[in-house]
Write a structure and sequence with these properties.
By secondary structure, this protein is α+β, with helices and mostly antiparallel strands. The chain is built from three helices and five strands; from the N terminus they run H-E-E-E-H-E-E-H.
Length: 125
């Protein structure tokens, strides 16, 4: 009798923490603060969007970057990338210092960078 009581008690103690859920609001966006590095201007392209991550290419760089779609600025960053693609202009990008593949912020390039980008494009005419 005592063995079955101890067995039941231990089983409940082991299962109980595994069954608890943390209440989080599904639509809640979070803020990630941390030191950033500016990597300069590049032509952005959204390569894919899976689950909560958007894979981004910033030409002429040969590496992929990503945007965590659960961060507050992610929608603004995606909108700016789509607008830059439509206009054919580069954007300036900052990445987090602790993970240089994660984009922290995207903002418009200045006039000089846009002119240099337009000059460097290969003419196909």
């Amino acid at each position: 009798m005592m063995k079955s009581f101890i067995y039941t008690f231990c089983t409940i103690c082991l299962i109980s923490p595994a069954c608890t859920r943390h209440q989080t609001n599904a639509g809640e966006k979070r803020v990630k603060n941390g030191p950033t590095i500016e990597i300069g201007a590049g032509a952005p392209e959204i390569m894919s969007v899976k689950n909560d991550t958007a894979s981004i290419a910033l030409f002429p760089r040969a590496q992929y970057f990503f945007i965590d779609l659960h961060l507050k600025r992610s929608e603004q960053n995606i909108r700016l990338i789509k607008q830059a693609n439509r206009l054919g202009i580069p954007v300036r990008t900052k990445v987090f210092k602790d993970n240089v593949h994660e984009i922290a912020e995207i903002y418009p390039a200045n006039d000089e960078e846009i002119k240099n980008y337009q000059k460097s494009k290969i003419r196909t005419e």
